[in-house]
Design a protein that fits this description.
The protein has six helices and two strands; from the N terminus they run H-H-H-H-E-E-H-H. The chain is mostly helical. It has one domain: uncharacterized protein sp1917 domain (Helicase, Ruva Protein, domain 3, Orthogonal Bundle), CATH 1.10.8. It has a two-stranded antiparallel ribbon. The radius of gyration is 13 Å and the shape is globular. This is DUF2200 domain-containing protein.
Length: 116
Amino acid sequence: MDKHRIFTTSVASVYPHYITKAEKKGRTKEDVDTIIQWLTGYDQKALQQIIDNRTDFETFFGEAPQLNPNVSKITGVICGYRVEEMEDGLMKKIRYLDKLVDELAKGKAMEKILRK
């Protein structure tokens, strides 16, 4: 079976869309970075290297220092699918990120987005 094309898409090609989505709703690039770092365990320097190197999503999540232990608290529908019911592990992680950026753009408080 072929890989979904998002798996081989670079994080750098999607990242500006996350920022634009957040900024349209009065949030910041720093908010997006905070969410990504919370989810993956990357620090700011490592995240910038991923963007600069055009790392794909498969590598990005495969080499993530540590997926946040609270990811199981991320629930709901994104792109027509319930995140908690997704079976493909990599797709689920990508959709977690999409869901967090969506919540940010919808004005949800950062502490709720980060499941504190």
